[in-house]
Amino acid sequence: MAEIVLENVVKRFGAYEVVHGASLEIVDGEFVVFVGPSGCGKSTLLRMIAGLEEISAGTISIGGKVVNDTESSDRGIAMVFQSYALYPHMTVRRNLSFGLEMNGNPKEDTARRVARAADILQINELLERRPGQLSGGQRQRVAIGRAIVREPQVFLFDEPLSNLDAELRVQMRVEISKLHKQLGTTMIYVTHDQTEAMTLADKIVVLRAGRIEQVGAPLDLYDDPANQFVAGFVGSPK
Ligand code: ADP
Ligand code: MG
Protein backbone atom coordinates (compact mmCIF):
# COMPACT_ATOMS: atom_id res chain seq x y z
CA MET A 1 0.00 0.00 0.00
CA ALA A 2 1.46 3.33 -1.05
CA GLU A 3 -0.90 5.79 0.47
CA ILE A 4 0.90 8.90 1.63
CA VAL A 5 -0.13 10.93 4.65
CA LEU A 6 1.28 14.32 5.65
CA GLU A 7 0.42 15.65 9.10
CA ASN A 8 1.29 19.24 9.95
CA VAL A 9 4.49 19.14 7.96
CA VAL A 10 6.66 22.21 8.48
CA LYS A 11 9.85 23.23 6.71
CA ARG A 12 12.20 25.94 7.86
CA PHE A 13 15.44 27.02 6.26
CA GLY A 14 17.11 28.63 9.27
CA ALA A 15 14.60 31.11 10.64
CA TYR A 16 12.71 31.24 7.36
CA GLU A 17 9.60 29.01 7.32
CA VAL A 18 8.61 27.98 3.80
CA VAL A 19 6.00 25.26 4.51
CA HIS A 20 3.58 26.09 7.32
CA GLY A 21 1.97 22.90 8.56
CA ALA A 22 0.80 20.99 5.49
CA SER A 23 -1.66 18.11 6.01
CA LEU A 24 -2.72 15.87 3.16
CA GLU A 25 -3.90 12.35 2.40
CA ILE A 26 -3.05 10.63 -0.85
CA VAL A 27 -4.80 7.37 -1.72
CA ASP A 28 -2.91 4.37 -3.10
CA GLY A 29 -2.77 4.61 -6.90
CA GLU A 30 -3.88 8.22 -7.06
CA PHE A 31 -2.42 10.79 -9.49
CA VAL A 32 -1.97 13.93 -7.41
CA VAL A 33 -0.83 17.25 -8.84
CA PHE A 34 0.70 20.05 -6.76
CA VAL A 35 0.11 23.43 -8.40
CA GLY A 36 0.94 26.96 -7.34
CA PRO A 37 3.13 29.89 -8.28
CA SER A 38 6.89 29.81 -8.30
CA GLY A 39 8.33 29.79 -4.78
CA CYS A 40 5.18 28.52 -3.02
CA GLY A 41 6.90 25.38 -1.76
CA LYS A 42 5.96 22.70 -4.32
CA SER A 43 9.48 21.33 -4.76
CA THR A 44 10.23 21.55 -1.05
CA LEU A 45 7.13 19.50 -0.25
CA LEU A 46 8.04 16.92 -2.87
CA ARG A 47 11.64 16.75 -1.66
CA MET A 48 10.47 16.16 1.91
CA ILE A 49 8.29 13.26 0.74
CA ALA A 50 11.28 11.93 -1.19
CA GLY A 51 13.53 12.26 1.84
CA LEU A 52 15.87 14.64 0.04
CA GLU A 53 15.03 17.38 2.52
CA GLU A 54 14.55 16.93 6.27
CA ILE A 55 11.25 18.01 7.74
CA SER A 56 11.35 20.57 10.56
CA ALA A 57 8.16 19.34 12.26
CA GLY A 58 5.22 17.02 11.59
CA THR A 59 4.97 13.52 10.18
CA ILE A 60 5.13 11.91 6.75
CA SER A 61 4.03 8.31 6.27
CA ILE A 62 4.20 6.16 3.18
CA GLY A 63 2.24 2.90 3.06
CA GLY A 64 1.29 3.24 6.73
CA LYS A 65 4.88 3.66 7.92
CA VAL A 66 6.28 6.89 9.34
CA VAL A 67 9.30 7.73 7.19
CA ASN A 68 10.59 10.84 8.97
CA ASP A 69 13.85 9.03 9.74
CA THR A 70 13.89 6.72 6.71
CA GLU A 71 16.62 7.20 4.12
CA SER A 72 15.46 8.41 0.73
CA SER A 73 16.65 5.18 -0.90
CA ASP A 74 14.50 3.10 1.48
CA ARG A 75 11.24 4.96 0.88
CA GLY A 76 10.18 3.08 -2.25
CA ILE A 77 10.01 6.28 -4.27
CA ALA A 78 11.59 7.37 -7.55
CA MET A 79 11.84 10.97 -8.66
CA VAL A 80 11.90 12.51 -12.15
CA PHE A 81 13.36 15.99 -12.45
CA GLN A 82 13.08 18.79 -14.96
CA SER A 83 16.79 18.59 -15.73
CA TYR A 84 17.20 15.05 -16.96
CA ALA A 85 20.40 14.39 -14.99
CA LEU A 86 21.49 11.66 -17.43
CA TYR A 87 25.12 10.55 -17.53
CA PRO A 88 26.39 11.95 -20.85
CA HIS A 89 29.19 9.40 -21.30
CA MET A 90 26.96 6.35 -20.82
CA THR A 91 24.60 4.70 -23.27
CA VAL A 92 20.89 4.83 -22.63
CA ARG A 93 21.01 1.18 -21.54
CA ARG A 94 23.73 1.97 -19.02
CA ASN A 95 21.89 5.09 -17.83
CA LEU A 96 18.95 2.84 -17.06
CA SER A 97 20.91 0.03 -15.42
CA PHE A 98 23.62 1.97 -13.57
CA GLY A 99 21.71 2.73 -10.36
CA LEU A 100 20.53 -0.87 -10.04
CA GLU A 101 24.07 -2.15 -10.63
CA MET A 102 25.38 0.18 -7.92
CA ASN A 103 22.80 -1.27 -5.53
CA GLY A 104 24.01 -4.77 -6.30
CA ASN A 105 20.79 -5.79 -8.02
CA PRO A 106 21.21 -9.19 -9.76
CA LYS A 107 22.29 -8.84 -13.40
CA GLU A 108 19.41 -10.81 -14.90
CA ASP A 109 16.83 -8.87 -12.95
CA THR A 110 18.45 -5.58 -14.03
CA ALA A 111 18.29 -6.67 -17.68
CA ARG A 112 14.63 -7.62 -17.25
CA ARG A 113 13.78 -4.25 -15.69
CA VAL A 114 15.62 -2.31 -18.41
CA ALA A 115 13.84 -4.28 -21.13
CA ARG A 116 10.48 -3.66 -19.48
CA ALA A 117 11.10 0.09 -19.12
CA ALA A 118 12.28 0.29 -22.74
CA ASP A 119 9.09 -1.47 -23.86
CA ILE A 120 6.82 0.76 -21.80
CA LEU A 121 8.50 3.92 -23.11
CA GLN A 122 9.14 2.59 -26.62
CA ILE A 123 12.82 3.45 -26.53
CA ASN A 124 14.17 0.06 -27.59
CA GLU A 125 15.92 1.48 -30.63
CA LEU A 126 17.67 4.11 -28.51
CA LEU A 127 19.36 1.81 -26.00
CA GLU A 128 22.86 1.97 -27.49
CA ARG A 129 22.85 5.76 -28.02
CA ARG A 130 24.27 8.37 -25.69
CA PRO A 131 22.21 11.27 -24.31
CA GLY A 132 23.91 13.71 -26.71
CA GLN A 133 22.37 11.78 -29.61
CA LEU A 134 18.82 12.12 -28.30
CA SER A 135 16.12 14.76 -28.69
CA GLY A 136 14.70 16.52 -25.64
CA GLY A 137 11.65 14.28 -25.60
CA GLN A 138 13.75 11.14 -25.89
CA ARG A 139 15.97 12.28 -23.03
CA GLN A 140 12.93 12.90 -20.88
CA ARG A 141 11.73 9.38 -21.69
CA VAL A 142 15.04 7.96 -20.53
CA ALA A 143 14.79 10.01 -17.34
CA ILE A 144 11.36 8.49 -16.72
CA GLY A 145 12.82 5.08 -17.59
CA ARG A 146 15.33 5.50 -14.81
CA ALA A 147 12.46 5.88 -12.39
CA ILE A 148 10.54 2.91 -13.85
CA VAL A 149 13.46 0.46 -13.48
CA ARG A 150 13.44 1.09 -9.74
CA GLU A 151 9.90 -0.31 -9.66
CA PRO A 152 8.91 2.21 -6.99
CA GLN A 153 5.69 2.34 -4.96
CA VAL A 154 5.49 6.05 -5.71
CA PHE A 155 6.66 8.25 -8.61
CA LEU A 156 7.46 11.88 -7.91
CA PHE A 157 7.72 14.32 -10.82
CA ASP A 158 9.06 17.86 -10.39
CA GLU A 159 8.01 19.91 -13.43
CA PRO A 160 9.35 17.20 -15.73
CA LEU A 161 8.14 18.81 -18.94
CA SER A 162 8.95 22.47 -18.45
CA ASN A 163 12.10 22.31 -20.62
CA LEU A 164 10.20 20.92 -23.60
CA ASP A 165 8.49 22.85 -26.37
CA ALA A 166 4.70 23.11 -26.34
CA GLU A 167 3.97 20.31 -28.79
CA LEU A 168 6.26 17.83 -27.09
CA ARG A 169 4.84 18.81 -23.73
CA VAL A 170 1.38 17.75 -24.83
CA GLN A 171 2.73 14.48 -26.22
CA MET A 172 4.68 13.65 -23.04
CA ARG A 173 1.71 14.60 -20.89
CA VAL A 174 -0.37 11.99 -22.69
CA GLU A 175 2.42 9.45 -22.20
CA ILE A 176 2.67 10.13 -18.49
CA SER A 177 -1.07 9.70 -18.20
CA LYS A 178 -0.83 6.36 -20.03
CA LEU A 179 2.03 5.32 -17.80
CA HIS A 180 -0.12 5.94 -14.75
CA LYS A 181 -3.00 3.92 -16.18
CA GLN A 182 -0.68 1.10 -17.13
CA LEU A 183 1.26 0.87 -13.85
CA GLY A 184 -1.44 2.02 -11.45
CA THR A 185 1.27 3.42 -9.17
CA THR A 186 0.76 6.42 -6.91
CA MET A 187 2.16 9.53 -8.61
CA ILE A 188 2.74 13.06 -7.36
CA TYR A 189 3.35 15.60 -10.07
CA VAL A 190 4.46 19.19 -9.55
CA THR A 191 3.66 21.81 -12.15
CA HIS A 192 2.70 25.43 -12.53
CA ASP A 193 0.90 24.56 -15.77
CA GLN A 194 -2.86 24.71 -15.36
CA THR A 195 -3.62 22.46 -18.35
CA GLU A 196 -1.25 19.77 -17.11
CA ALA A 197 -2.87 19.90 -13.69
CA MET A 198 -6.44 19.76 -14.99
CA THR A 199 -5.83 16.93 -17.45
CA LEU A 200 -3.52 14.68 -15.41
CA ALA A 201 -4.86 14.90 -11.88
CA ASP A 202 -7.23 12.67 -9.98
CA LYS A 203 -6.68 15.21 -7.22
CA ILE A 204 -5.22 18.70 -7.31
CA VAL A 205 -3.47 20.32 -4.35
CA VAL A 206 -3.34 24.11 -4.73
CA LEU A 207 -0.47 25.69 -2.81
CA ARG A 208 0.06 29.32 -1.99
CA ALA A 209 2.98 30.72 -0.03
CA GLY A 210 3.71 27.49 1.85
CA ARG A 211 0.09 26.62 2.64
CA ILE A 212 -2.38 24.21 1.08
CA GLU A 213 -5.25 26.39 -0.12
CA GLN A 214 -7.56 23.68 -1.40
CA VAL A 215 -7.55 19.99 -2.33
CA GLY A 216 -10.01 18.38 -4.70
CA ALA A 217 -10.79 16.72 -8.00
CA PRO A 218 -10.15 19.05 -10.97
CA LEU A 219 -13.83 19.59 -11.74
CA ASP A 220 -14.73 20.14 -8.10
CA LEU A 221 -12.12 22.89 -7.83
CA TYR A 222 -13.29 24.36 -11.11
CA ASP A 223 -16.96 24.33 -10.04
CA ASP A 224 -16.39 25.34 -6.47
CA PRO A 225 -13.07 27.11 -5.90
CA ALA A 226 -12.50 28.18 -2.27
CA ASN A 227 -11.36 31.64 -3.34
CA GLN A 228 -10.17 33.82 -6.21
CA PHE A 229 -6.65 32.48 -5.98
CA VAL A 230 -7.76 28.88 -6.53
CA ALA A 231 -10.19 30.00 -9.24
CA GLY A 232 -7.29 31.63 -11.07
CA PHE A 233 -5.18 28.51 -10.87
CA VAL A 234 -7.78 26.10 -12.16
CA GLY A 235 -9.08 28.49 -14.81
CA SER A 236 -12.50 28.79 -13.22
CA PRO A 237 -14.54 31.83 -14.31
CA LYS A 238 -15.74 32.31 -10.68
P1 ADP B 1 8.48 26.02 -5.87
O1 ADP B 1 8.97 24.67 -6.20
O2 ADP B 1 7.02 26.07 -5.60
O3 ADP B 1 8.85 27.04 -6.91
P2 ADP B 1 10.37 25.83 -3.67
O4 ADP B 1 9.86 24.71 -2.87
O5 ADP B 1 11.52 25.60 -4.55
O6 ADP B 1 9.16 26.50 -4.51
O7 ADP B 1 10.75 27.02 -2.68
C1 ADP B 1 9.91 27.47 -1.64
C2 ADP B 1 10.60 28.57 -0.87
O8 ADP B 1 11.70 28.01 -0.16
C3 ADP B 1 11.17 29.67 -1.76
O9 ADP B 1 11.00 30.89 -1.10
C4 ADP B 1 12.63 29.29 -1.86
O10 ADP B 1 13.42 30.43 -2.06
C5 ADP B 1 12.90 28.67 -0.50
N1 ADP B 1 13.98 27.68 -0.54
C6 ADP B 1 13.97 26.53 -1.26
N2 ADP B 1 15.10 25.82 -1.03
C7 ADP B 1 15.85 26.55 -0.15
C8 ADP B 1 17.13 26.36 0.49
N3 ADP B 1 17.86 25.26 0.27
N4 ADP B 1 17.54 27.33 1.34
C9 ADP B 1 16.79 28.41 1.60
N5 ADP B 1 15.58 28.66 1.04
C10 ADP B 1 15.11 27.74 0.18
MG1 MG C 1 10.03 23.97 -7.88
UniProtKB/TrEMBL annotation:
UniProt KW keywords: ATP-binding, Cell inner membrane, Cell membrane, Membrane, Nucleotide-binding, Plasmid, Transport
Its membrane topology: Peripheral membrane protein
GO MF terms, alphabetically ordered: ATP binding
Chief subcellular location: membrane
Keyword rRNA processing: no
Subcellular compartments: Cell inner membrane
Domain called ABC transporter: residue spans: 4-234
Keyword presence, Cell membrane: yes
Family under the similarity heading: Belongs to the ABC transporter superfamily.
Protein name per the record: Sn-glycerol-3-phosphate ABC transporter ATP-binding protein UgpC
Organism of origin: Neorhizobium petrolearium
Gene: ugpC
